Amino acid sequence: MTTSPLPADHPPVLPAKTGILIANLGTPDGYDYWSMRRYLNEFLSDRRVIDINRLIWQPLLQLVILTKRPFTSGANYKLIWNHEANESPLMTITKSQTEMLRARAHEEWGDQVMVDFCMRYGNPSTPDVVDRMVKAGCRRIVFLPLYPQYAGPTSATANDQLFRALMQQTWQPAIRTVEPYLNRPDYIKALADSVRRALGDRIPPKLVASYHGMPQRYLMQGDPYHCQCQKTSRLLKEELGWPDGVIDTTFQSVFGREEWLRPYTVEHVAELARQGITEIAVISPAFASDCIETLEEINGEIRESFEEAGGHEFTYIPCLNDDPAHIEVMLNVVRENIVGWV
User: Fold this and answer.
1) Is residue 198 left, alpha or beta, with left meaning phi > 0 and alpha meaning psi from -120 to 50?
2) What number is the average pLDDT over the span 95-124?
3) So what's the pLDDT on residue 256?
4) Which residues, 6 or more positions from 38, have their beta carbon under 8 angstroms from its beta carbon?
């Protein structure tokens, strides 16, 4: 069977590819005031993140919060900034994850696939990357937000932005969004191995599993995030073979005055120290990449809270980042979601 050539005036049609698009939270382009303001404005204007009535929230955000917070947030970013590459650690790590996943995917599927990354907030934006993939011939895209546990303010808003990006496309690609991967044995094993690398065979008095926080009412509204965090901690304990009571599940990054998921990490570590537990380790299973919340908040504010309350030994266990085992988890997730497309 022969294919008729396209008419001379027909727009070009590239050979079809399958896209693999990983998505991370985002990062400001710099730690200066205006870069921080743009980033925070996009982040804090997301209705999945802050769902207060816009008539109340936007004046408060634009006239009060965004006049002050870019300075404090910028100072915190400056402490962890990758000055050599002039980018945040999250950007550096996400680039490395993408390059490693691309290499593994090309080993398996060759030129049939295109691997890229986008950010929910900041650059490279989801619409820009989707447009680039479509123009490169991607007729199908596997979308992998880098959140092991599902939450409205993380997984859902990443998907929202993807679907908004598709609204701009004349010829929309087929899409598969991946489900949460918190209970995958390869993911849990990679987490456990990171604990073993940091601690050896030693079982600490407490391992604090600190997850990003969100308002308590989200749980009451049906968001499964809290339950999935608890399950991750339980599976990690079982994989390590540790006794009950060693791993505590806590939540960080509280914002505003309403009740958030408890216990709060910053308060919990101080209470442990006051109880006489002067040695703890902290891990962040909800974060696929080290970022401001881990490198500055945990190693800064939370460490200080523990030490000021009498704690002595504080071990932060890095995120899985670009560890080969983590890249293999991503590849396995893609394998399961790309079936029939390559």
Assistant:
1) alpha
2) 98
3) 81
4) 28, 29, 122
How does pLDDT run across 173-191, given as a tens digit for each residue?
A: 999 999 999 999 999 999 9
Give the separation between CA 241 and CA 191, rounded to whole angstroms.
Answer: 13
Contact partners, residue 67, CB within 8 Å, separation at least 6: none
Q: In the chain, what are the domains?
A: 17-180+324-337 (3.40.50.1400), 185-317 (3.40.50.1400)
Q: What is the mean pLDDT of residues 1-14?
A: 69
Confidence tier at 13 by pLDDT (50, 70, 90): confident
| pTM > 0.90 | yes
- CA-to-CA distance for 111 and 131, rounded, in angstroms? 19
Bond preceding residue 185 cis, omega within 30 of 0: no
Comparing C-alpha atoms, which of 156, 157, 97, 150 is closest to residue 319?
97
